[in-house]
Amino acid sequence: MQALYKIIASISLSLKTMIALGPIPLSMMYFRKATSTNKSMSCWCLLAFVFCKNFQFSISIHFMFKKLCLVALVSFTTAQLVAQAPATPAQYVCYQTNRPLVLDGKLDEADWQKAPWTSLFVDIEGDKKPKPSLATKAKLLWDDQYLYIAAQLEEPHIWAYQGKKDQIVYLENDFEVFIDPDGDGHNYFELEINARNNTFDLFLPKPYRNGGDALIGWDIKGLRTAVHLQGSLNNVQDKDQQWTLEMALPFSALGLGMNPQAPQQNSFWRINFSRVQWQHVVENGMYKRKKNPSGEGFLPENNWVWSAQGLIDMHLPNYWGYVFFTNQKIGNEAITFQLPTDETAKKYLWQVYFAEKAYFQQHRTYTNNWSDLGISPSAFAPYTIQIEYSKNSFVLSTKAEQGIWQLTHDAWLTKQK
What we know:
The chain is an alpha+beta fold. The protein has 8 helices and 18 strands. The protein has helices at about 1-10, 15-20, 25-35, 40-55, 60-85, 110-115, 340-365, 370-375; strands at about 90-95, 120-125, 135-140, 145-155, 175-180, 190-195, 200-205, 225-230, 240-250, 270-275, 280-285, 285-290, 300-305, 320-330, 385-390, 395-400, 405-410, 415. The strands form 3 sheets. Strands 1, 2, 3, 4, 5, 6, 7, 8, 9, 10, 13 and 14 form a 12-stranded mixed beta sheet that branches. It is globular.
């Protein structure tokens, strides 16, 4: 087992190395993002992947192991998803800039000074865990070409050694952005950045728990980033204050075989931010992640987020925050938005979705019997939810103000025309 933990700890790879190894690093992302509380199971699944790869099993057998392990891991979290849904996601109004921003990481331009901060980040599990020990907050702006994101991270020890594009940045402290422009739960984007301005971006056609595979070869074309340190990098002798960052994400790049467009007035995107913070020690003049008392593996990282997820899994886009876009220029009168009533209907669909998943976990089939699901359909008034199902799939649907919404067994939310 100690050797296995060393394998896990050593997977900090460049893109070329990850491609050579096949899907192992992608599975690592699933382990860290979705199963941090199930490390034993994660280790045995990774062992299966390594076994298949090292002994040159066929590609089909290799992927069979991957699918089996993902199913096993999902079974640990489905009941949690039913019981631990967070409160209403966080909300933020994103104003337009008065002029294009020059990125230097300092956030001292007039538009940034006027833009409101988000609320301070909380633990990924929400109120069940203590408040983070270090403050983190973000702010956003936009224009016709870019979504601008800034963040401020309090940090007495600024360290980051990974400097190659698309290394697995979250194996050290980082800041992460998750974006689902149309809120359908599929086809979303992730961007990670560390204190030395190294980035890792990827596209996910659907969440890992639904069989999605991250496309780490995808890049945000035209992405611009900058980092500013109030302190020094990797200096174990001093105490730092914080690091700040700026990002400019081109709207034209946020698509893959789709038609990416800038947001429309009064529209919203589902977005969340995460800060990964490891406990550390100093060895031979370098910062390193702190190991478990047993010496096997590392202490779990802290995950601090803008909008609480309810459990340790960032890949639940239905729990991400709401970012509302207005054409109003920053610095003018503040405005407020109210969530469309259709968002309540969608929330009810997700409640039934997770109940179906919990039922399938026990009975290996889905159902349309409300008693089996432990739900009273009257709880969703004034909405009526229809369930179409087979043994291995289902479609939920409900009529709301904007149309008929459907949610499938693989977490795809769409509006029917």
